[in-house]
What does this fold into?
Amino acid sequence: MTSPAYDIIVIGAGAIGCSAAWHARSLGAKKVLLIDRGGIAEGTSSQSSSILRTHYSVRENVELARRSWSVFTKFGEYLDDPQAECGLNRCGYLVVAADDERGEAVRASLAQQRTMGIEANEIDAKQAREILPLLNTDGLAIFGHEPEAGYADAYLTATAFARAARRLGVEVRQGEAVESLITEGSRVTGIRTKAGTYTAAMVICVANVWTNRLIESSIGVSIPLVAERHEVVAFEAPQPYLPSYPVLKDMASESMVYARCYGRSQLLASPGLVGHATDPDERQADVPLDIIATLGEQVAARLSSFDQAGVASTWTGLYDVTPDWNPVLGPLPGWQGLQVGFGFSGHGFKLSPAIGRLLAQSALGLPTEVPLAPYRYERFDEGALLIGRYGKGAVS
Ligand SMILES: Cc1cc2nc3c(=O)[nH]c(=O)nc-3n(C[C@H](O)[C@H](O)[C@H](O)COP(=O)(O)OP(=O)(O)OC[C@H]3O[C@@H](n4cnc5c(N)ncnc54)[C@H](O)[C@@H]3O)c2cc1C
It folds into this structure.
């Protein structure tokens, strides 16, 4: 039997794939190919709000977010590239809630974070206003503050990982779609594109909302994954939402709105609820006026001066949603030579450094630093869903 051309092929050069390819090479894979049908980070990563927090109710996610945060905060050093930039703004995360079930979930999540050694404080209304002077605290009872949080830039992050990967000798092929996986019995042995075939000891498929098409058509496994459209609106108000202001999560608002500074003074905001199922190839769509109006009302109710805000821009993005809004990581049952990472359900960017590392470890047959078992594919059939106190949704 001839040996495969590559140790590892990574399909999909988004935030997850670029991280996986760099980690694979760093962890010892000699020949690595990163391949994308488009360009680096041109998929859903380019649409990301790129918020970084460790605030989760699902403990496993806290661990992945914490490990990833430590990469974002020493990014150039981690990639051994002083010019590497992830666009980090360490402005903190403020989560507010009424005295209700969601508020209890916030309290419990903060307490869980603290047991894990993370600074996650419950503060009072006055302290919250000191951090965010525009905040209207009417109806709020719970204020959670995570100082070590903020947002970054998913495009910068992915391209930095890709550049670092190239420097280590990873081959990056762009504009080349993978048409199918190649199999021998129950083993994936490579990929096929229009340009030819590439064999590999292991294929890591991280093609986001396009994963099910490729997997189903190649190996007949029907995976539970829905492409959901989500809307993002940038508002501009008479008073700026400054870069020093925290990311805001308003659990008391009807749509569980999240918001952060955009540029130097605008506010990026989006509803934090379930979106609309859509065709994964419908990349951009108009944001309907009623969505802008509903979102705008909730933002105006929470932030002074935003009752006079105008709309600066709007865009849509796709979430790759699984039944429990958490990813599947690792092998697919019954198949060798294949690792998958899909279903990031609107919160994968903040986890991408850790997930890339874990997928690379798993692909190389190394012990994973964090168990992947909770993220196993089989959990859907076993009923062992990863659903925390917030129920289904990207806050998880
Ligand atoms: C509007 C929005 C807001 C978000 N906000 C946040 C946030 O605040 N914080 C957070 O942590 N996460 C957020 N997310 C989620 C986060 O951005 C994603 O989870 C993450 O970027 C996904 O990265 P990826 O590498 O899996 O996917 P992608 O970036 O979509 O990469 C997948 C790649 O696979 C390629 N591909 C697909 N099919 C093939 C094929 N057949 N052959 C070759 N290549 C193929 C695509 O071209 C694409 O480049 C948000 C997402 C959206 C849409």
